[in-house]
Amino acid sequence: MSTDAKKDTPLGRILVVEDDREMCRFLSELLSEEGHEVEVAHDGQSALQRYAETPFDLVITDLMMPGMKGTELVRRLREIDPEALALLITAFGSIESAVETMRAGAFNYLTKPFRTEEILLHVARAMEESSLRKEIRRLRKEIHGRYGPGNIVGKSPSMKRVFEAVMQISDTPANILIVGESGTGKELIARAVHYQSSRSHGPLIPVNCAAIPETLLESELFGYVRGAFTDAKKDRKGLFHEAQGGSLFLDEIGEIPLPLQAKLLRVIEDKEVRPLGANRTEKVDVRIIAASNRELGELASEGRFRQDLYYRLNVIRIELPPLRERFQDVPLFVEHFIQKYSDRSARKVTGISEEALAALMRYSWPGNVRELEHAIERAMLLGKGEQIAAMDLPPELLAQSDREVTLTEALSRRFTLKTLEQEYIKKVLQATGGNKTETAAILGVDRTTLYRKLDELKEKD
To answer: What is the gyration radius of the CA atoms in the chain, in angstroms?
Structure first.
């Protein structure tokens, strides 16, 4: 093999299993010269013990050996490691032996006698496959970490309840409905649910139902066969098929037209899809995660959304609170987005000034977390100092008139401690949507104390 070919071949650890010691020595020397780390075993049981101690990138094994055939060795290796790669060598080249080899789970097989170039080509392909599988495992691990509940920003009581729900329901087969205003992070929660579930090794296919024209949405979801319509030149699988074994995230599902809702309901109930123009259905194994920024129950009562579909989707419900109701999460988001955009900024940003943070805390955030992210990205790109200053923030954010007070304003207006406490209670009560249990928890008082303070507020008003 040429020097260039060696450079292109990923080096790896190879276990050679062969009862013929001359063949074993030949393969060991050949592969070692190519730069691979090679170990040998002369029977299947010894090979299993070696592999259990330290997995190999490739196992090269003879098919016919005393005690344990190569096919049996491959089966047992894949019990230890489902992704084990094995290359079988046989002197009995036939269709039957090839079929038996591939059924056992071998990566490939080679017939004796073979040329040196043949074995090296098979090994090179196996090393490339091993390298690809390692990269896939690394990316999966990275995605699991990125979309795990521990990496979703938020410490407010309402978000803690969301985290708990994600952990509790991720591995259930039930459909999930995520509701919340635009920009609250519904897709992030959907990804967390998927990647914490047993379906995480399958795909997560996101679909923005509001962004696809009504005339195309059906064919996008269910696919079509050649000739189904004028431009259908060949068969095409739909998104349900692409999500096979994984999850389909239907964002803004309230925008799906009523006729298509009926077909979607049938797919959910029967777990079968009929592509456009097809005369038969096809089985699908897909978990539905739906999301909406509108209340589907209200749409159903108005006749704009099928009630039976709503009940099918609303098996498990996760409600995401708007950012204005969890203001204590704003500083966490600011820190998170500063880190996220630090590589794109021409300057080093170490944090945010008190004045700028106070402005962010006063703002009502109609665009929720997405709007806050854009504000921080803009400030990092356009600002000049090491800290984000108030002048770096969007003008509309600074211009908003707000009656809420900061500590600086409270000091300038000579607020008493009692007045400041009452203003804060009002703010927390507003943020929790009037939930007195949550308000008391944030304030660190019991409900009796909270009710007494609320009565004092009523007397003052």
So the answer is: 31
- Going along the chain from its start, the domains and CATH numbers come out as 3-141 (3.40.50.2300), 149-321 (3.40.50.300), 324-399 (1.10.8.60), 407-460 (1.10.10.60)
Could you tell me how far CA 454 lies from the centroid of its own chain? 44
Distance separating alpha carbons of residues 18 and 112, to the nearest angstrom: 13
Is the model more confident about 233 or about 424?
Answer: 424
CA pseudo-torsion sign 154, 155, 161, 165: positive
CA 435 to each of CA 168, 290, 361, 400, 446: distance values in angstroms, whole numbers, following the listed order: 23, 27, 20, 26, 13
**Cβ of 178: how many Cβ atoms within 10 Å?**
28
Averaged pLDDT of the chain = 84
DSSP category for residue 318: E
Strand-pairing partners, residue 38, are 14
Residue 202's φ and ψ, nearest 5 degrees, are -95, 175
What is the Cα–Cα distance from 220 to 231, expressed in whole angstroms?
14
4-8, 47-51, 234-238, 357-361, range with the lowest pLDDT? 4-8
pLDDT winner (highest mean) among 26-30, 81-85, 437-441:
26-30
pLDDT for residue 283 is more than 70:
yes
CA-to-CA distance for 120 and 141, rounded, in angstroms? 31
Asked if 240 contacts 222 with a C-beta cutoff of 8 angstroms, the reply is: yes
Asked if 97 and 89 touch (Cβ cutoff 8 Å), the reply is: no
- Give dist(CA 402, CA 404) in Å, integer: 6
Residue 245 confidence (pLDDT) above 80 = yes
Compute the average pLDDT of residues 49-64. Answer: 87
Helix (H, G, I), strand (E, B) or coil at 15: strand
> Per-residue pLDDT tens for 220-242?
999 887 876 777 778 888 899 99
Q: Is the pLDDT of residue 293 over 90?
A: yes
97 or 162, greater pLDDT = 162
CA atoms within 13 A on the CB side of 66: 3
Strand partners, 177: 290, 317
In the beta sheet, which residues pair with residue 89? Answer: 62, 110
Of the candidates 329, 347, 336, the one whose C-alpha atom is nearest the C-alpha of residue 392 is: 347
Instruction: List, edge to edge, every strand of the sheet that includes 86-90.
Output: 37-41, 13-17, 58-62, 86-90, 108-111
